[in-house]
């Protein structure tokens, strides 16, 4: 093709692009399959802004197809798939796999706060490691 002449996307190229986008291809992948440059695609989109929306919808088709597979398996009685879906889509209805973490006999575990050290505190690191345990043994002297 002569230099400076813009490439035209014909019907065949458009079909290849749309097929690729409907399978979740990136712009680069779709352009490779259609044997065009990304700049050709972007120039086409500037001239045909409605194609940008169509491209987005086509790229979303893979998600839609995945949802169809999930719904089909749920309709066929797949309890594991149904639970998976409920845990993700019906959390606000009590289908969340939340776990409460507590200490012995339900006692709150609390938390330990470690403040950030500034440059003046970095020299005291070794002395802070030599703190004693509840039993009175030095951490460094434990067997």
TrEMBL record:
Q: Where is this region: Disordered?
A: 93-143
Q: List, as start-end ranges, the regions of compositional bias called Basic and acidic residues.
A: 115-125
Official protein name in the record: Uncharacterized protein
């Amino acid at each position: 093709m002569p230099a400076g002449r813009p490439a035209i996307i014909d019907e065949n190229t458009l079909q290849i692009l749309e097929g690729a986008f409907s399978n979740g291809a990136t712009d680069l992948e779709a352009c490779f399959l259609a044997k065009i440059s990304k700049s050709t695609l972007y120039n086409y989109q500037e001239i045909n802004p409605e194609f940008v929306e169509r491209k987005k919808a086509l790229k979303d088709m893979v998600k839609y197809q995945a949802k169809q597979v999930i719904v089909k398996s749920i309709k066929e009685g797949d309890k594991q798939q149904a639970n998976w879906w409920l845990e993700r889509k019906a959390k606000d209805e009590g289908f969340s796999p939340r776990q409460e973490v507590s200490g012995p006999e339900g006692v709150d575990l609390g938390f330990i706060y470690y403040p950030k050290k500034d440059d003046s505190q970095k020299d005291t690191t070794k002395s802070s490691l030599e703190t004693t345990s509840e039993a009175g043994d030095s951490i460094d002297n434990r067997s």
